[in-house]
Amino acid sequence: MNISRIGGLVLGMLLLGAGTASAQEPITISPEKVQQICSNRVPRVEARVKALTDRINGTPETLGSKKWIEQKAADARKAGNTARADVLDARLKLRDAQLVKLSKAGERIGKFKSEHCGSK
User: Fold this and answer.
1) Which of the 8 DSSP states describes residue 21?
2) CB of 56 within 8 A of CB of 99?
3) Residue at 7 is within a domain
4) Is 97 within a domain?
5) What start and end residues bound the annotated signal peptide (predicted)?
6) 105 vs 9, 41, 69, 70, CA distance in Å?
């Protein structure tokens, strides 16, 4: 599964209770469901956001990291394969966008956690 699909999945999981129309009443969930989200889902989402962020910011030896992609692009240019280097450069731009999405996801889950999960 590629990082963009995983990032989308993480972001989708964070849209808890987001209504489609602002005129509708807010969605409420039971205290038991909130506790379940706080104890099960929040830690998993936090761990996934951290893992993806760490991977993207990893070393040149970390498969899929920005530095790894930069190295592969440099190798492709050195070998004269500019088309491959251009594709890798486009992938680098996507990684930057994914970091922004992951940062926002982390902020949203942190806000949910502080508002609904107490000091956990």
Assistant:
1) -
2) yes
3) no
4) yes
5) 1-23
6) 11, 13, 24, 25
Task: State the Cα–Cα distance between residues 45 and 114, nearest whole angstrom.
Answer: 15
Name the residue range of residue 66's domain.
31-117
Query: What are the pLDDT digits (tens) for 7-42?
Result: 555 555 555 444 455 567 777 888 888 889 899 999
Q: Tokens 């963009």 belong to which residue? A: 4
pLDDT number for residue 17:
45
Q: What angle do CA 103, 65, 45 make, to 5 degrees?
A: 35
Supply the pTM of this predicted model: 0.69
Structure tokens at 103: 């940062």
Residues of the chain with pLDDT under 50: 1, 16-19, 120
Q: What is the pLDDT of residue 27?
A: 76
| DSSP characters over 23-89 | TSPPP---HHHHHHIIIIIHHHHHHHHHHHHHHHT--TTSTT-HHHHHHHHHHHHHTT-HHHHHHHH
